[in-house]
């Protein structure tokens, strides 16, 4: 088995919120570990506020993790580049933001964004280089002279991907890259990501709350709930045989176009009840999962689709590690990220 390109170990992120008089800590990400192999798309799915963007922002070094390791090619960059990421790290790990409108400054032509990315990372911004990167993302060379408002949302997101690609990254962190796009152009961006994986061996972390697109695009899927990873593995295995009550709840919201009546509000209500009901799901009010951490174990072997889940309900009794967790705040409130500022920070804070 080949080494993963990037490994995350025990990643934890706390935010301080509130006023000077009522400071409190919000744990947005708690002890998360996973690998991102080259040439694979890994989807990170979960509802709003579950901590997906915080993970991406920690990996892009826009946020400083509170604890954990981020190993790029086996080297813990949080130790070796403690204060801020090196230029080499930023070149290898690029981020594409959700908002294709906010991430491109309207006063500049497209050529400016790509030239700037190339120059910042030490590549000559030749006409040939610009043409190549535009062609790769399915845009024409004449669009280099356009302003962002002259392009469609889908085209703008392709420019954002082109900007990331210009520096020849090995990992792209794509945070809801299609959620602001019209359905008709979404699939084009998803297909572009797939092509980049296949042709350039790029690793991708695809963050989404759209399970349909995760199923369409991803090789591996990880499910995030309240700051923790609860289930993961082969994308089809997770989607076809979800083991965690929360994954089943998420999937129950996705209608199957080939199956009439597949969106069943009564079934969805039952699943929600299963999560909230202390006798059926320890994530509920009896708090088993907040007192003792469920260990990862494998499910679905009997159906030939093994993947992992962290759930007391699914654990054989012998598997349950009775490790007492520190009391942690659960995520609350809304994140306020400014895409334009983030883009600028991601570009310019290279050491
Ligand atoms: N800068 C911040 N300051 C305080 N709390 C934050 C900050 N950024 C995120 N959070 C909190 O951390 C939690 C996780 O937020 P995050 O944006 O990572 O979730 P998400 O799963 O990406 O949601 P969405 O899909 O809505 O973007 C939320 O409760 C959020 O309010």
From TrEMBL:
Could you tell me which residues belong to the region Disordered?
327-351
Q: Which GO terms describe its molecular function?
A: ATP binding; ATP hydrolysis activity
Going by the entry's taxonomy, the superkingdom of the source organism is recorded as Bacteria
Q: Which Pfam families match?
A: ABC_tran (PF00005), oligo_HPY (PF08352)
Q: Which InterPro entries match?
A: AAA+_ATPase, ABC_transp_ATP-bind, ABC_transporter-like_ATP-bd, ABC_transporter-like_CS, Oligopep_ABC_C, P-loop_NTPase
Q: Does the keyword Chloroplast apply?
A: no
Tell me the ranges covered by the ABC transporter domain, including all copies: 6-251
What keywords are assigned to this protein?
ATP-binding, Nucleotide-binding, Transport
PROSITE patterns named in the record? ABC_TRANSPORTER_1 (PS00211), ABC_TRANSPORTER_2 (PS50893)
Annotated GO biological process: peptide transport; transmembrane transport
Q: Output this protein's name.
A: Oligopeptide transport ATP-binding protein OppF
Q: Which organism is it from?
A: Streptomyces jeddahensis
Annotated gene = oppF_3
